[in-house]
Amino acid sequence: MKKEILLSGIPASPGITMGEVFLLDKEEIGIKKRRLEKTEVEKEIQRFENALQRTNEELQVIKERIGKRIDPEQTKIFDAQLLILEDEVIKGEVERRIREEKINAEWIYKKTIEKTVNSISSSRDEYLKERVYDIEAVSERLLSNLLGKRRIALDKIKRKAVLMAHSLSPGDLVNIRKEKISGFATEVGGGTSHVALLAKSLGFPAVVGLKDALRRIDRGDFVIIDGDRGLVILSPTEKTVYQYEKRQKDLLKQKRKLFRLKSLPGETEDGRKIEIQANIELIEDIEEALRYGAEGIGLYRTEYLYLAKSELPSAQEQKKAYQTIVDKMYPNPVILRTFDLGGDKFAGEKTDMVEANPFLGWRAIRVCLDVPELFKVQLRAMLEASVRGNLKIMFPMVSGVEELKEAKSVLDQVKEELESQGIGFDQTIELGIMMEIPSACLMADSLATECDFFSIGTNDLIQYTLAVDRGNERVAHFYQSFHPSVLRLIKQTVEAAHRNGIWVGLCGEMAANPLATVLLVGMGIDELSTSPLSIPQIKRIVRSVNFSQAKEFAQKVLETTDLQHIKRLLEEDYKRRFGAEEIICLY
Ligand code: PEP
Ligand code: MG
Question: What DSSP state is assigned to residue 311?
Fold first, then answer.
């Protein structure tokens, strides 16, 4: 019997679950030894050659992109990797061993590479030693092509389990059948990484950033995932299980109580309207949004149409998806955000995207403006779905006025095309932008004259203001939502929007944080958009607030420059309102 062990990570998605572990580690990516029948051997060699070919094509694409976009010097790395890939000695040895030993290609390839790496690592030649990184990079790419990516491994989950992995991408999660896992924990990741946000939508309790915890865990171990506190309890004692079961029941009771508020409007005690809307990733989420009383969709992350399939959705598929959402929410508004691909929503799925700093890289509106075919198809599908009048379009990651103007001119072109073809759309459609880069917040006055609304994306705004990768557990303690600089940027943005007569919402995770609600209301936010399950809790807080008092409170918080002091003020205010009730996001 193992002893109970408490592993501490970062809360990613609230709730509690317990069960048997399904461990997804590198081995699990499927590198298993498999004997081949005589008749399978030539096919296996062909499969290996196809994977070589595919890897070669991917490397060529990256090399070309990097050469054009970044720095021709950098392409040398890929020349080196291509040479390794095409190395006749390695290729010859793999094919010979597959023939002689009659074992599957990935196993033989892995063994061959390990042998090569071992002999290079023990060499004294520094240049050669540096090649180890390239060899490993190439072999990972090739193995992933041979294995058809992680989906194979994920498909092996037979009964409902708690998934534990070194890392998971949004694409992995979107492709796991919901009934197969009850929650997950990963060694890497931050609380607002997209995999964490997706977990919330899917309703999985999750913990990320467990550092090197997996070495202590075996498949089949029993664990508790405490997504509220960011804990994983390995081999819990009976007493711990009992306590958690009790907690689960208490949370359910609280959730039921809050659920009664779902149909009430989001407005303060003294009648200021604050729209409480839902963020969704998948079309199915719309049902949850309705169930939990969303007054609209404040953010539909359309890139999930792509991530769910690993290929671009066709114009028809997009139009159908947008129309479904718009119809189901009618007459309430729906904000469709154009593709926010890149950052942590590319790498891993689309292997031709390798960037040193993906969050600072080719992402969101930058991708759309560089690939007008992609952008125009999406805008057209959105416009075609807009006839009922409740659809709004939003651009992500706008950094300044020129970029917004450029994107608007593409939108105008698409509108003209539709008009010339006699295809109807909402002529007064509202256009908004995400305010998630500090440069945009600083230029909010100018941007506000070019669009109809702002939606503040705190997930990115925090990472870009504080220079903290939102997905990196090592720096997670620097990711401070209530940092005075972040609060000032929010306040500045709200004021600029109102000065210029446009409304401003907030759709980052701060909208779901019970500690932030009164502050945001007091700063003048007009709309809050959050995962459907948080809506009742946020409504409850909004409905308990008096606007003029909230304004005074916000003023006090904004005058404070000490982060700990700010947190204290927020906690005290929450306690004043709701007593000693634990401050967690309730699901
Ligand atoms: C944000 O950055 O706050 C946001 C809502 O967008 P995303 O989380 O999709 O980057
Ligand atoms: Mg963002």
Answer: S
Identify the CATH number of the domain in which residue 121 sits: 1.10.274.10
Nearest to 231 by CA among 14, 24, 509: 14
- pLDDT single digits (tens) 493-510: 999 999 999 999 999 999
- Asked whether residue 100 falls in the same domain as residue 184, the answer is no
Q: Are the C-beta atoms of residues 396 and 369 closer than 8 Å to each other?
A: no
Q: What is the pTM of this model?
A: 0.77
pLDDT, one tens digit per residue, over 49-89 is 989 998 888 778 767 766 665 566 667 777 888 888 999 99
d(CA 226, CA 212): 18
Ligand 1 binding pocket mutation candidate from 339, 436, 437, 534 (most atoms within 8 A of CB): 436
Q: Which protein residue's CA is at the shortest distance from atom 4 of ligand 1?
A: 457
Show the domain range for 445. 252-578
Q: What angle do CA 274, 12, 536 make, to 5 degrees?
A: 30
Is residue 243 domain-resident?
no
Ligand 1 atom with the smallest distance to the CA of 508 is 3
DSSP bridge pairs for 530: 278
pLDDT digits (tens, 9 = 90+) for 505-555: 999 999 999 999 999 999 999 999 999 989 999 999 999 999 999 999 999
269 and 195 belong to one structural domain: no
CA distances from 489 to 232, 460, 485 (A): 35, 12, 6
**296 shares its domain with 374:** yes
Q: Give, to the nearest 10 degrees, the angle between helix 547-558 and helix 563-578.
A: 160
- The amino acid that residue 319 corresponds to is K
Q: Is 430 in the same domain as 476?
A: yes
Identify the residues whose C-beta falls under 6 Å from ligand 1: 197, 299, 301, 340, 436, 457-460, 507-508
For residue 346, the Cα-to-chain-centroid distance in whole angstroms is 10
Q: On the CB side of 283, how many CA atoms lie within 13 Å of its CA?
A: 16
Closest by CA to 286, choosing from 265, 276, 300, is: 300
Give the type of residue at 554. Answer: A
74-102: b or e for each residue (b if 16 or more CB lie within 10 Å)? ebebbebbbebbeeeebbebbbebbeeeb
Same domain? 339 vs 402: yes
Would you say residue 585 lies in a domain?
Answer: no
Q: Would you say 33 and 104 are in contact if contact means Cβ atoms under 8 Å apart?
A: yes
Tally of domains in the chain: 3
Element holding 297 (H helix, E strand): strand 297-301
CA distance 265 to 269: 11
Which residues have beta carbons under 5 A from ligand 2 (an ion)?
Answer: 436, 457, 460
Please report which residue ranges of 385-437 form alpha helices under DSSP H.
401-420
CATH code for the domain in which residue 14 is found: 3.50.30.10
Q: Are residues 211 and 99 in the same domain?
A: no
Q: Are residues 467 and 553 in the same domain?
A: yes
